[in-house]
Amino acid sequence: MANAGVAYRPGQRIQHAEFGEGVVVAPEQNGLVRVFFSLGERQVPADALHPLLTETERILAGVEGTARRLKQVWLSIEARSLPLMEGASSLTSANIDL
Fold first, then answer.
1. How does pLDDT run along the chain (98 residues), one tens digit per residue?
2. Rounded Cα gap, residues 63 and 9, in angstroms
3. Using alpha carbons only, what angle is made at residue 61 by residues 59 and 65, rounded to the nearest 5 degrees?
4. How far apart are CA 75 and CA 82, in angstroms?
């Protein structure tokens, strides 16, 4: 399954049938994309790559609605992924003179 028209950008996560998951190092030139895999950096044909979506991108792809609705869903997902400040009370009781 070729991905004609996909513009790969540095930092984008991708999947390759032989090398597995990787990260794009440099954009496509002459049909080849430089990608860093666990085995090291390789130049592979762009049509042999498949973009990987983050969990958030996969969820948003299934949400219908306006741009504002999509932003609200995204913010909700991001808020749930933030670590909770369990030790916040220890900060208020610390003996620190600012």
1. 446 567 899 999 999 999 999 999 998 999 999 999 999 999 999 999 999 987 777 777 777 778 888 788 878 877 877 766 555 555 566 666 66
2. 25
3. 100
4. 11
CA distance 98 to 51: 49
Structure-token pair, residue 7: 């513009």
> Quick one: which of 64, 19, 78 has its CA closest to 43?
19
Q: What is the pTM of this model?
A: 0.56
For 65, the token pair is: 């609605």
Is residue 33 within 8 Å of 24, Cβ to Cβ?
Answer: yes
Q: Which of 47, 48, 46 is nearest to 16 (CA)?
A: 48
Which residues are CB-contacts of 60 (< 8 A; sequence separation ≥ 6)? 70, 73, 74
